[in-house]
Amino acid sequence: MKRKKSRPFWKWIAVACISLFCVAPLLWGLKVSIAPQYDTSIIPRRLTGEHYRYIFSRPEFFQYLRNSVVVSLSTVAFALPLSLLGGYALARFNFPGKQFSFLFLVFPLLPLIAVLVPLVSFLNRLGLYNKLSALVVVNAVFNLPLTVWMLRNFIMEVPVEIEEAALVDGCSRIEALWKITMPLAIPGLVAATVFIFITTWNNYLYASALITKPSLRVLPQGILAFIGTWGTYWGGLTAAGIITLIPPLVLFLLFQRWFIAGLFGQMLK
User: Fold this and answer.
1) How far apart are CA 150 and CA 141, in angstroms?
2) CB 3.0 to 4.6 Å from 33: which of 92, 105, 146, 239, for a disulfide?
3) Where in the cell is it found (predicted)?
4) Which has more pLDDT, 200 or 13?
5) DSSP of 36-72, one letter per residue?
């Protein structure tokens, strides 16, 4: 009996330790961003907004912000329709090779650095090097496998009889997808949208390999500008990191219910 009663206590201890491990860097970064530059205490003696004022006084920061917004929204607009069509095809049609669709879950596990060099060479030949469109294409392509599988799982939860009834009434397959399946698959679409936006917004590897012009840098690249040869401006670095964190965090908090439901392919009740 004692052993059974002690299990929930140890579970809560484990959850608390894991949560502290995940949240501690964020809290420390927030502390550094609102504390004076040379304040090394755990709890700041006074609060200051000097680091944020410095960030907002730099016009290049707004340029990086604009580039990140453009790339993230363009990637969503490009990848989401393709993910919907691909997920619908996997959920509704039988075709040769469908039994290998599980590979959609394998592709995201491949090391991206392994294909980075040939990818850069290929995009350079296409004339897309040092262009934001290259980031849009690359982020869309590498987000497609997981978002296609995500939408496939959710569309399979939509009763096929509803679509068949629409087809009998004279709807084409595209009309049935647009008028019947899409409204019922909104949580899955939201989940895919949030996933594409967040992964594109946070991606540094592709941007560092494909963009060298300072005017085309995105936020993950711009943050590293605070790490210089003669030292690191930790206050500005953490302030820029906190600002960069806000859009994906707000997006997730607003749509977390739909995101979780769509991620597991479950209908909202």
Assistant:
1) 15
2) 239
3) Cell membrane
4) 200
5) -TT--SSS-SS---HHHHHHHT-HHHHHHHHHHHHHH
Q: What is the pLDDT of residues 165-200, one digit of tens each?
A: 888 888 888 888 888 888 888 888 888 999 999 999
* C-alpha torsion angle, residues 61, 63, 69, 74 (rounded to 10): -150
- Burial (0-12, 13-18, 19+ Cβ within 10 Å), 135: buried
Quick: pLDDT tens for 199-253: 999 988 889 889 988 889 999 888 877 776 556 788 888 888 899 999 988 888 8
Q: What is the pLDDT of residue 39?
A: 74
Percent helix, percent strand, percent coil in the chain, to nearest 5:
75, 0, 20
Contact between 123 and 194 (Cβ < 8 Å): no
Phi, psi angles (nearest 5°) of residue 203: -75, 130
Pick the CATH number of 47-263 from 1.10.10.10, 3.40.190.10, 3.20.20.70, 1.10.3720.10: 1.10.3720.10
